[in-house]
Amino acid sequence: MLSNYTAATGLFTGLIVAIVGMEIYNMFRKNDSLKIKMPEQVPPGVARAFEVLIPTCLTCIVIGAVGLVCQLATGSELNAFIFNMVQKPLQSLIGNNIFAV
Prior knowledge:
Blueprint: H1 8-29, H2 44-51, H3 53-74, H4 78-94
Helix pairs in contact: 1-3, 1-4
């Protein structure tokens, strides 16, 4: 069961979560009210690290909440949910042959 996370189903889920997560992160990062303002004496590298601290934490919370809601609503993890809703119907429609690949 754990090997499904590194197989094709896990790769597809990883791509979807990465794209959605980066879009959520960019939305939070553009919001100036979520940035921690540092004094002028603080080096720029340290100030940038603190600016993205809250957007990064909020993105992790949102992605975790989506996974938890999916598990509570369907009874299966996000990886299995995406496999059953996207990949299984395509496999039954196209089949497992060289032309499907």
